[in-house]
Amino acid sequence: MNVETRDGLVLEVAGRELTDGLVVAQPHRRRDQYLYAVPAVLLIALLVVPMVWTFGWALDADVPVVGNFRALFTDPVALRSAWHSLLWVGIALVLIGFGYCVAVLSRQLGRLWRVLLYVLILPFGVSAVVSGAVFRLIFDPTPERGMATALFGGNVTWLGPDLIWWVLASAFAWSWLGFIVVLFRAGLDSAGGATFRLWRFVLPKAGSVTAIVVLTVLVAAIRVFDLVLIVAPGSIQDDVDIVGLHWWRMTLRSADTGGPSALAVLLFAVVAVLSLAGMRAMRRGDGAKAVPLSIESIDDSRPARWWSWPLVGGVGLLWIMPVLVLVLTAFHSPESAGSVGWWRFDPFSLDSFAATGATWLWPAVAGSFLIAGLAAALVLVAAVPLAYLLTWVAPRRLARVVTGLLAILAVAPVQMYVGPLRAVFTDLGLAGGRAPLALVHAAAGLPFATLVLRTAFLAAPARDGRPALDGMWRRGPYRTALIAAGVLEFVLVWNDFIVGFLISGSGSGPLTRLPWGEARQFGTSAGTVAAAAVVSAVVPVVLLLATWRRVVVGLTGGIGR
């Protein structure tokens, strides 16, 4: 189109296709933009209000303020459970350090890294209930069923008080080591060769993704409820009792709310300090120069060294073995699985799947889809605007304060808010409902998802500038971060046990709570437990394997192509 000015100058004006979302013209007052945070504030209130309620219960005692806490400190069972929970935090920290070392060494594997990536990440898609069922099968004390007992003899009691902690730690490591290694490797690749000094050692820096790893694994260690419940036989559960289980038993034995609330507050205080310490990694990552990853750059094309072939083969076999144990047990009939080991090549049967499918299977699958899908959608609707405001709109000091608060809420023990919520849902006739459970999951997942998105936004290339909020939903490098947050939330909710169990009980979906019910008679229900575990693991595992490279890129602020 030609435009002629008053001076006779003819200008040719050409239109240009709109490539991003609309940007509201200035002036646009900053306080109006904070309205985008309203959904997030409402969801966070669903956590904070019950937590304040729990604080009130903890302080309400015959001796005000200190009465319930003094009773806990004089209770040897409570002190033992607190020590065990701290031991789980220590296990998580050791696993994080080991995973970092493996990630550093993995840079020498060349093209075999892609193979190892998918092998290691596979267990992350299964729930703690499934992991517990697998390791319960492997270490079953009956030599006819337990592979470890058959190999080492009946004199070694793997599920006894002397070795049970090694079995539990192994199950936890099998589930989480792949997540740690893959994210650290992505952080190392995107850090641009940056280093840091630890004592006398100069080590490569993994960047702000360190905060995501620390927060995620700490949350998993704090919530390690179902793993202990399904792996440890009832006769030795006192030897591995943790705060979560002790809290649950306290609520079953008595209607008193003061003691359990004080226990939850003490655990919350410890993990809050650990979380704030971990957030220092995220603050150090703010503004750091990084080399953005692309989906293609995850695949290392360098030739593999000769020693990497047997190494990857050995690690791969070790990591795949529990999956083989689970699947082969599921393809035995219930009678056969209860009497012989998975390695016995009896005629394969679908009877265990049929036994589960004839009762609760398909309603539980539908319930899990509904709860996980709704929770993931709610989290994205609330977390994206909040992360946007914290990254590009809020003053730096305010953003740091809110980020610290989110870090504390992200690791808040379920026991801090589940008691008041359960009481309210029961009074309103909503106990056992799927929509309230999805809301609780969304509220619990929102702080972590916001931190994930903010980390990804901060690590995105500086040349992209500040994007339009509505454009982030449709295109651009930030869409990959949204996929990452959505997939992680869906998988974590699908695999959840403790939130649904403590709010709704064991008799209603989602899927992961029902294999636990079968596992209470483990000797006679190994086949149906394995079949239920296989079915519950299919959806999250397939989703992770299909999207994992995008998830990794999104978590590190890379560019999705």
TrEMBL record:
The membrane-spanning stretches of this chain are 34-59, 82-103, 115-139, 163-188, 209-232, 258-279, 311-331, 360-391, 398-418, 438-460, 481-503, 523-546
> What's in the GO CC field?
plasma membrane
Q: Which InterPro entries match?
A: MetI-like_sf (IPR035906), UgpAE/MalFG_permease (IPR050809)
Q: Does the keyword Nucleotide-binding apply?
A: no
Compartment(s) where it occurs, according to its Swiss-Prot or TrEMBL record: Cell membrane
* UniProt keyword list: Cell membrane, Membrane, Transmembrane, Transmembrane helix, Transport
Q: Is Membrane among this UniProt entry's keywords?
A: yes
Q: How does it sit in the membrane?
A: Multi-pass membrane protein
The name of this protein is Alpha-glucoside transport system permease protein
